[in-house]
Every structure is written in structure tokens, then in C-alpha cells.
């Protein structure tokens, strides 16, 4: 199973990027998680959407070829970061590579609410006509990691909190079943 991962933080020691890397290693027998380079995407420009820069072409192709997409987002001012919205805007135009794509959303923050507001925005965006992703249904499947600084190991950067890892295992299983049922 080939899954593209979008991470909404560009910070070197990002908890959300560390979560992506933890998942890459922990679930490598079950799926191949490829982290997309959304940093190199230029700002969306509608004048360029029909013949976009190479980085955009490659990003859209990766999403198009994937069995599903995992989106891991911090919360910036109660929403998703601009770099992630920018990637979704490119993906929403011309060939609309997200239509019907199974998506799992996760997020980590040092705050208490675990990116819930950002993820609510994200779900609205993923429902837009140019995107129309198939989002893992929310009932119990939201992965909201609050107090991230207490759950990741400072040295290795890995997610080490047992309770969170157990919860994540069950949600990843749900996503794998969801992807199989959609493809
Ligand atoms: C511009 C900005 C806005 C932020 N807004 C929120 C917010 O609305 N809610 C929240 O829980 N955390 C907020 N934070 C704190 C981030 O959740 C925290 O910095 C987190 O570590 C970012 O994710 P990262 O570690 O993957 O970079 C904000 C941080 C920044 C830099």
C-alpha cells in the first residue's frame, strides 16, 4: 500500500514531522509512507495551474498514484498552516488529484486541544468541490495529540507515549481497512 504523507510544519524539530517519521518506521510492514516535499511548492498562482512548475507536477503525480494520503498538521491560529493549504490548493485544480482519495488526518500540538480546530477546518477543505477526498470517518478516528512536548522523546524525536502509540495503532488499522475498501 503506497501512501503519500503531507506534513504542515517546516520546522526542523517539528513534532508533526517526527510523528510522520515514527509512523514511517512503525508501520513499514503494512504500508509505504512517502513524505511529500511541500516546502518546495511555489505559492499557488492560477495563471500557472495549466502548466505548473515541475515541483507541483511531481507532487500532484505522487498524490494521484498513491492509494491514500495521510495529512499531519499543526494548528496555526486555529487553522491549518499556509504551506499545507497551498499544497491542497495546487492539488484542487485542473486534474484534481484528491477526488475520491482516502485520507487520514492527524495533528500534534503543545497545546491542550490537540489541533482540533485545525482538523475541523481541514475536513471542510477536503470536502470542497476541487478536492472531494474520502476522509476516514470522524467517529472515534480523530488523532488529536495535545501536550506533544510530553509525548515525544527529546533525544530521538520519536513519539514514545505508550497510550498514544496504542491509540495510533488502532487508527492506522482503521485507515488501512478504509483504504482497502475504497480502492
Ligand atoms: C504561527 C503559530 C500559530 C500557532 N497557533 C496555535 C493554535 O492555534 N493552536 C495550538 O494548539 N497551537 C498553536 N501554535 C503552537 C503549535 O501548535 C506548536 O508550535 C507546535 O509545536 C507546532 O507544530 P510543529 O512542532 O510540528 O512545528 C502556534 C504556533 C505558531 C508558530
TrEMBL record:
Domain NADPH-dependent FMN reductase-like residues, every copy: 1-146
UniProt-listed InterPro entries: Flavoprotein-like_sf (IPR029039), FMN_Rdtase-like_dom (IPR005025), NAD(P)H-dep_reductase (IPR050712)
A GO term, aspect molecular function: oxidoreductase activity
GO CC, any one term: cytosol
One Pfam family in the UniProt entry: FMN_red
Family membership noted in the UniProt record: Belongs to the azoreductase type 2 family.
Protein's name according to its UniProt entry: NAD(P)H-dependent oxidoreductase
